Amino acid sequence: MKLNGEFRLKGGCLCGYVRYELTLQPEGATYCHCDDCRRTTGSAFNVGVRVRGAGLAILSGKVKAYTKTADSGNLITREFCPECGSPLFTRSPTYPDYVFIKAGSLDDPTVVVPKDQIWTSKKVPWAQIGPSLPSFLENRTS
Q1: What residues make up the domain containing 58?
Q2: Which of 37, 119, 130, 142 would bridge with 33, disulfide CB 3.0–4.6 Å?
Q3: How far apart are CA 68 and CA 71, in angstroms?
């Protein structure tokens, strides 16, 4: 969303303790079916919105972080609200300049549209996403 010629998009957790703002436009969104994303979201998949970290500002509250080795073998840090547990951000040293926002934490999640899906080798058969969407059995290479 543009406000006075500048991009602004806000979001936050369920309880409102953590509020954030994006000042750079998202560079894409992806459905992820990996085991970690399913467990983190409590759903069949995650929708991650790729943004440059320089464009993310925490307006209020502080996030708690949990780091582990992902299915890819890379370290991944998931950040969430320490009060209500809402998942908010994912960071990886593989993409040090980026943060992946959980689409459901955006005040207006309709502004992002996933362009592909990854880790389809792990997807559950009862949650279907349009078959025309580009799909990758594991992660993309870029």
Answers
A1: 2-122
A2: 119
A3: 10
